[in-house]
Write a structure and sequence with these properties.
elongated, five-stranded antiparallel β-sheet, SH3 type barrels, alpha+beta, TolA/TonB C-terminal domain, 2 domains, 2 helices, 18% helix, single chain
């Protein structure tokens, strides 16, 4: 009887570890495929290639089930184009599953006209970390308009999404 129970427990352990795989995302951005075994004293115990390893919880940003399809943060054509009003100007943006929560002011002290597309990168907290004006779709190469659009893009703020990758790409479009 004890032998049968041992076999059942062993079978359960083997099948649950083979099926219950996870992805652990570290603060460094590294993605670790493993089996999470336990959390003890702020240390995550995981099995990687059948070897138990300990990861300090402070180094972990996220834990996902293996069937989770992770978004890599790259610019995608599937992002919806959203328009917001800034004074007399319209700002359009495309960034997956984000909402602009701080709309920057747009100005043009000249009579120059054109469409400027700015490729942006934002962090999980919605801060614009980089802005590159003159992206595909721009209709002007005027330095003044490119600089103004870059300034507008850097001043934009988006909602926080802690489950997103460390950086997410999108575009901001300004018609002058």
């Amino acid at each position: 009887m004890a032998k049968n129970i041992s076999i059942i427990i062993l079978f359960f352990f083997i099948t649950s570890t083979a099926i219950g795989q996870h992805f652990v995302i570290l603060k460094s951005g590294k993605k670790v495929e493993c089996v999470v075994n336990a959390l003890n004293n702020d240390t995550l115990e995981v099995y990687i290639d059948m070897m138990m390893q300990k990861i300090p919880l402070i180094e972990v940003t996220s834990i996902y089930f293996a069937q989770h399809v992770e978004y890599d943060g790259k610019l995608t054509e599937k992002a919806e184009t959203i328009s917001v009003k800034s004074g007399t100007h319209i700002i359009q943006y495309q960034i997956r599953a984000r909402k602009m929560i701080s709309i920057p002011p747009v100005s043009n002290a000249t009579e120059k006209k054109g469409r400027v597309v700015v490729k942006i990168t934002i962090d999980r907290y919605g801060n614009v970390t980089s802005a590159e004006p003159g992206y595909i779709g721009s209709t002007t190469t005027d330095k003044y308009l490119l600089t103004k659009a870059m300034t507008v893009a850097k001043a934009a703020r988006f909602n926080t999404v802690m489950t997103d990758p460390l950086s997410v790409e999108g575009i901001i479009i300004i018609n002058y």
